[in-house]
Amino acid sequence: MTVPQAAATALRALVLTAGLGTRLEPLTYIRAKAAVPVNGDTLARRVIRWLVSEGSRDLVLNLHHQPASIASSVGDGSDLGARVRYSWENPVLGSAGGPRHALPLLFDVPAGNNRQPFLIVNGDTLTNVGIADMHAAHTASGATVTMALIRNPRPDKYGGVVISDEQWVTGFTRAGSANRSYHFVGVQIAEARAFEALTDGVPSETVNQIYPRLIAADPHSIGAYVCDASFRDIGTPADYLETSLYLAGLEGDRLASGTRVGIHPTASAVRTAIWDDVTIGAGAKLIECILCDGAVVPAGARYQRCAILPARGHGPKGRQRIEGNLLIADF
């Protein structure tokens, strides 16, 4: 079964940007994960630009942690060719509770009165899934939810999705499992009915709660769209810098394109991501670092593979330490 591209690419989308980003700490002390700049452009703006290129222009972003950092980056989306609205969550509602809470915004009608599919896209990963083909597969299968999957590139690092020969999701595995699995790249097409029965405002998760129940009730409820889409991870500070450097090699180096940045002529910052309001003093040497908003690196300082940000009352934990007014986290 085929779906005309114009219809397939008219899907509304919910971009999940409400998460706490704990694995990305301490970067997420300063900004929401979707608001971190990756080679000069925030994750949220990159995701929106990709969705617009696929024809999805009516978008909802959910907000909880550091919401102003996302809203100030994206605004109403008009400069990106999109219409962006926001679904506020307090508390954070999770990967299933978030979509349930956003349904009235996505469809402008009460829950239960709409059966159109919509996109759910993780706001913290980068991919290039072909939405038109995925929508066609979703429509042909009759699935309640279709997940975009690739071969699991790192079963030791990523939990996996187990599928049948007929391309149905049968279960999920934890990282390190010996079972053959696929990797979810953060793009789904879902019917509203997958979430309508949930109580609005109550936190709930998909993979750990809702989807296993759907599969138990109907083995053909969750479809697998296996593709060869790209996938770039932003899970940890090391992942963030690796992806930033990769994109700098493709797009041109905009790692230091933050606003109000002052770098002394005798200082150097090599393969280093520099955010806004950063000052680097005379003779300072930085190699493969991340300088977050407001960081002031003193003259003569030497850092390598560190995230550096104003301490601002954050006590160090794990591999973090305080040096003067800075919080330093090795990675």
Summary of the model, kept short:
With 331 residues, the chain is of the alpha/beta class.
Descriptive account of the structure:
- The radius of gyration is 21 Å and the shape is elongated.
- With about 325 residues, the protein is an alpha/beta fold.
- About 25% of the residues lie in helices and about 30% in strands.
- It starts with a helix and ends with a strand.
- The protein has helices spanning about 5-10, 45-55, 65-75, 95-105, 130-140, 205-215, 235-250; strands at about 15, 35-40, 40, 60-65, 85-90, 115-120, 125, 145-150, 160-165, 170-175, 180-190, 220-225, 230, 260-265, 270, 275, 280, 285, 290, 295, 300-305, 305-310, 320-325, 325-330.
- It has two domains: about 5-230, Spore Coat Polysaccharide Biosynthesis Protein SpsA, Chain A (Alpha-Beta Complex); about 255-330, no CATH class.
- The protein has seven helices and 24 strands.
- The strands form seven sheets. A seven-stranded mixed beta sheet has the order 5-4-1-6-11-8-12. Strands 16-19-22-24-23 form a five-stranded mixed beta sheet. The chain has a three-stranded parallel beta sheet with strand order 14-17-20, with no helix packed on it.
- A hairpin with a 5-residue loop joins strand 9 (about 160-165) and strand 10 (about 170-175).
Average pLDDT level? 94
Category by helix and strand content: alpha/beta
How much of the sequence lies in strands comes to 25-35%
CATH superfamily of the largest domain: Spore Coat Polysaccharide Biosynthesis Protein SpsA, Chain A
Strand order of the largest sheet: 5-4-1-6-11-8-12
Compute the separation of the termini in Å: 48 Å
Q: Note the main sheet.
A: 7 strands, mixed
Name of the top-level CATH class of the largest domain: Alpha Beta
Please count the helical segments. Answer: 7
Question: How many β strands by DSSP?
Answer: 24
Radius of gyration: 21 Å
Annotated CATH architecture of the largest domain: Alpha-Beta Complex
The number of domains is 2
Shape: elongated
Percent helix, as a range, is 10-25%
CATH level 3 topology of the largest domain: Spore Coat Polysaccharide Biosynthesis Protein SpsA, Chain A
Quaternary state, please? Answer: single chain
Low-confidence stretches: 1-9
